[in-house]
Design goal:
single chain, mainly alpha, 10 helices, 0% strand, globular
Length: 265
């Protein structure tokens, strides 16, 4: 187990001390980009009146805009944690060159593809049951609705909840990918994903505990405006947790290698 969640939260607050204003400015920049982009996507979707176009626009927006800017915000917070305060404009760091943007878009695409594939697998059973519950399915097939079908709504709800839980835990295997991405700018995207998957085997539950320990802050953020205060705290706590996770893994590997050397000697 990593250090107690209280230590991580305390360290995060200490890192933000006297730097909260600049972090809030960077957060406002990120949120402005997100909501502005979503507004544009909604307008284009309304003009085209196509669900397929709307879905494609939102996916492209997430891959090529939202996640790269989020990585930039994480990088900004990473420097704050290191004791360096940059200009909030640095949240657009990954748009400053083709190579940087390509690296960020690569990781974004990998995360979105992973999330989409696992969502398809996890929610497919619930979708099948929902189709069976739809009277249009039987009308199109030209058959009568079986009497027991009406009782399947409980199964649909159960499968949907189970699918959501399964999807969350499958994606949590990559929760450290953004941290590794900003902490080591020379690490390729595929290595970031693989390394995050290895690290999460030891630290995923610790991260879940950290998230639940901040549940009150999550509820406060849902009201809207307070997110400019809480998001920097969440991101800083995430970065501090990532530091401890990598340090624990490195110390474990060192101990194993030392033990092997001692035995072989």
């Amino acid at each position: 187990m990593l250090v107690p969640t209280k230590v991580i939260r305390t360290t995060a607050r200490a890192a933000l001390k006297n730097k909260m204003v600049s972090c809030m400015a960077a957060t406002v920049g990120f949120l402005f980009c997100v909501f502005s982009g979503l507004f544009v996507c909604d307008i284009l979707s309304y003009i085209t009146k196509s669900m397929a176009v709307s879905l494609a626009l939102n996916i492209l927006f997430v891959v090529f805009a939202v996640l790269p800017v989020l990585f930039g915000l994480l990088r900004y917070m990473w420097f704050v944690l290191s004791g360096i305060t940059q200009n909030p404009i640095q949240i657009f760091y990954y748009f400053s060159s083709g190579e940087r943007f390509g690296r960020a878009a690569n990781l974004s695409a990998r995360l979105v593809i992973k999330g989409s594939l696992w969502a398809f697998v996890c929610f497919l059973p619930a979708f099948v049951v929902s189709v069976l519950l739809n009277s249009s399915f039987y009308e199109a097939a030209g058959i009568s609705i079986p009497e027991f079908i009406g009782n399947l709504w409980v199964l649909e709800v159960f499968l949907a909840v189970a699918g959501l839980i399964g999807w969350v835990f499958l994606m949590l295997r990559y929760y450290l990918a953004p941290f590794l991405f900003v902490a080591d700018e020379k690490m390729p995207a595929f290595t970031v994903m693989d390394t995050a998957k290895v690290l999460s085997k030891r630290t995923m539950l610790d991260y879940v505990c950290l998230v639940f320990s901040m549940f009150v802050w999550v509820l406060i953020s849902l009201t809207g405006m307070p997110i400019i205060f809480t998001l920097p705290y969440f991101l800083m706590a995430y970065l501090v947790h990532g530091c401890y996770a990598v340090a624990q893994y490195n110390s474990t590997i060192t101990a194993i290698n030392t033990q092997k050397f001692t035995v072989s000697a």
